[in-house]
Design goal:
disordered N terminus, mainly alpha, 0% strand, Glycerol uptake facilitator protein, 30 helices, single chain, 676 residues
Length: 676
């Protein structure tokens, strides 16, 4: 079809008269392509009426369709289309991306080749067919004499053969050693996949003996296959659930996804073979056609691949962080003031880090040498905060958002938005008091240290251009302070992801157990040392690596950006407070009131941006991992806003509420879930 023909398509009436006024022996797909493209611009009923009034053309069209499809198989459309084919994520992504731009060449004797040529706009064409009214679909199938497609021996053979192919593949994937380890509960039971394969082989043998074989919903053989299918789904679900205990790799994740897809496909094919009433024949015939088109239209779907492949890993990451996240939601006045104490400790350390970074700038060396010093400064400081059980403001949401996502998604009854809103208020006030503790101490500590250095060395290290830059960086209008604060929020989120990923890999590869049982460590340092090291690694390693990389990100961003001639840096509320102290001291506090007030406000605006970015990303990630619907998220936000307007002080102060008991219960349930 030429470019001109595509936009100036003849009507179906004209095309039918052109191609099928006479009996046509051609196997060329061009007539079918032209008719289908023209049909999308017309009413299907008009097409049906034309065929009714022109019986000779109708018979010639039927003859052509039967010829085209006579020797073509469709088992590949059932066993391959929209089912994962690679063993890991990256090759599968690469394969689908290539197919998007350069569709693969289909085998000519398959239904897939017909679909590829005729339905070249996969999703749009399938949507059109799907939206054809049911009564018209039935009538069209009857007119074209394909209403009994599903009971044709050739079709049934293809369907049963496809189920057997899928069952063999399921068995191959399910019997992988690493996959079996994910569901140890099944090791002492008969494998449901082997039983399923055996049952489907029996079905195939029965069909070979009698090709008129038809299943019904009361058939014992059908019910047995359904039972084994359900057991297979239970196995996969159990393996996914156990991933929180045993960890998981990308390979196993995709293997489990593939098994689930193949079991689902077997289930869908099986239902096509079940005929209880006469009307089911045409219904199942139409369903077979639409299923094949559906599979074909989604086979190169990148969004589904990315979503399915990352959902479990994101769940694991958020589950890992949720286990510790519950500790960052203050529920009582005592916990509230303890959080202030922890945040104060974090503020003291950050105040010292601010001064150290400024002093490192005096060291001679290249920009990348200074980036190393800054990164080392941040990384060691953050690790110190973590190991001393102090708190850095805005790191909490990365841990706590998962907790809230779990709370709202794990409930089986109708969600109680009020309870959830109260939980959010407890998080917010925890974050607020962390802000206060950090800022309250980073400012005076930085001020005290810089003053002490001047007393010792007789030099104001913050004076001159340094002070001017520190103050100008806190101008929300003429600087990119808020943008840089958002970037810092992104890094804080990434550090939470790193913590979850490290924790997951540690569990999957059983690193603590390896350390404990390592013969070299036990022989050289003793059994008690090995056990202690194992426990320390299990408890702290994920947090250490998270804080280490956070330090690298924050310390090197400006230098790397400058290398590429980009004006990019990071801003964090606690460091902003410390830098404000250094800037004021460098200027000997001789700044106008406008500048001071603006800088002071900017410190908290930076904190707000830090919080919003990391909290938003964390919530999105956590909700996605648990497949919480967008509409539900919207309702949650509305209820949170209403709760804030009704009880604003509870978002800042540890005010008692009748909802505290239920909220505490939800948090306890989350902790219990993520630790088992």
């Amino acid at each position: 079809m030429s470019f001109k023909n595509f936009f100036e398509q003849d009507s179906t009436d004209i095309l039918l008269e052109r191609y099928f006024s006479l009996k046509n022996e051609t196997l060329d797909l061009l007539p079918l392509t032209h008719i289908f493209q023209a049909l999308q611009k017309e009413d299907v009923k008009d097409f049906i009426d034309f065929l009714k009034s022109n019986p000779e053309i109708k018979e010639n069209l039927i003859y052509y369709i039967k010829n085209v499809f006579k020797n073509r198989t469709f088992n590949l459309s059932l066993t391959e289309a929209n089912i994962l084919s690679e063993s890991t994520f990256v090759p599968e992504l690469r394969k689908r991306t290539l197919a998007k731009f350069l569709p693969p060449v289909e085998e000519e004797n398959t239904i897939s080749s017909v679909i590829s040529e005729v339905f070249f706009r996969d999703k749009a064409d399938f949507k059109y067919i799907k939206n054809v009214p049911k009564n018209l679909s039935h009538e069209l199938f009857r007119i074209l004499e394909i209403d009994k497609l599903i009971i044709l021996p050739k079709v049934k053979k293809e369907l049963i053969f496809s189920m057997n192919i899928l069952a063999w593949r399921v068995v191959g994937n399910a019997l992988e050693v690493d996959v079996l380890k994910m569901a140890p509960e099944y090791k002492d039971f008969d494998n449901p996949f082997l039983a399923l394969q055996k049952e489907l082989e029996i079905l195939f043998q029965d069909f070979q003996k009698d090709n008129s074989l038809t299943l019904n919903s009361k058939d014992a053989h059908y019910k047995q296959i359904k039972i084994y299918l359900q057991q297979g789904f239970t196995f996969v679900n159990k393996a996914f659930k156990n991933s929180s205990i045993y960890g998981i790799s990308s390979k196993i994740n995709l293997a489990l996804l593939k098994i689930r897809q193949q079991l689902q496909r077997i289930s869908e094919i099986l239902e096509l073979l079940v005929i209880d009433k006469e009307i089911d024949v045409i219904k199942k015939s139409i369903k077979l056609v639409t299923n094949i088109l559906d599979y074909k239209s989604h086979r190169n779907n990148l969004r589904d691949l990315i979503y399915d492949s990352t959902t479990l890993l994101s769940h694991l990451i958020t589950s890992h962080t949720a286990e510790t996240g519950t500790n960052y939601i203050t529920t009582t006045k005592k916990e509230y003031w303890v959080m202030l104490k922890k945040a104060s400790g974090g503020g003291i350390i950050v105040g010292a880090l601010c001064v150290l970074k400024m002093l490192y700038a005096y060291f001679p060396g290249s920009e990348f040498y200074h980036a190393f010093l800054y990164s080392f400064n941040y990384a060691m400081g953050f690790i110190m905060i973590y190991l001393m059980n102090f708190t850095l403001a805005t790191k909490q949401p990365a841990m706590t958002a998962a907790t809230m996502a779990h709370v709202i998604s794990e409930k089986n009854d109708k969600k109680n938005y009020l309870e959830f809103a109260h939980l959010v208020s407890k998080l917010f006030r925890s974050q607020f008091i962390a802000f206060v503790g950090n800022v309250l101490w980073s400012f005076p500590v930085a001020l005290g240290i810089i003053y002490g250095l001047e007393v010792l060395f007789g030099q104001n290290f913050a004076a001159g251009d340094k002070a001017s830059k520190l103050i100008s960086d806190l101008d929300p209008i003429h600087s990119k302070a808020l943008l840089h604060a958002s970037l810092a929020g992104f890094y804080l989120f990434v550090s939470g992801v790193i913590a979850g990923n490290v924790g997951n890999r540690s569990v999957f590869y059983k690193i603590p157990e390896r350390i404990e049982k390592n013969p070299y460590i036990k022989n050289v340092f003793g059994k008690n040392f090995a056990e202690g090291l194992s426990k320390y690694y299990s408890k702290n390693w994920a947090g250490i690596m998270s804080n280490f990389w956070l330090g690298i990100f924050l310390g090197s961003t400006a230098t790397v950006a400058h290398f590429f001639n980009l004006d990019i840096d990071i801003r964090h509320i606690t460091f902003a407070a410390g830098n404000l102290a250094l800037g004021l001291y460098g200027k000997e506090f001789s700044v106008d009131s406008y500048t001071f007030i603006l800088s002071f406000i900017t410190v908290f605006l930076i904190g707000f941006c830090n919080f919003i970015v990391i909290f938003g990303l964390s919530m999105f990630f956590a909700f996605m991992s648990r497949k919480v619907e967008f509409g539900e998220v919207k309702q949650l936000n509305i209820h949170i806003l209403k709760y804030f307007l009704k009880n604003p002080l509870i978002f800042f102060l540890p005010i008692r509420s009748s909802l505290d008991e239920r909220s505490n219960q939800l948090v306890e349930e989350t902790t219990k879930h993520t630790s088992h």
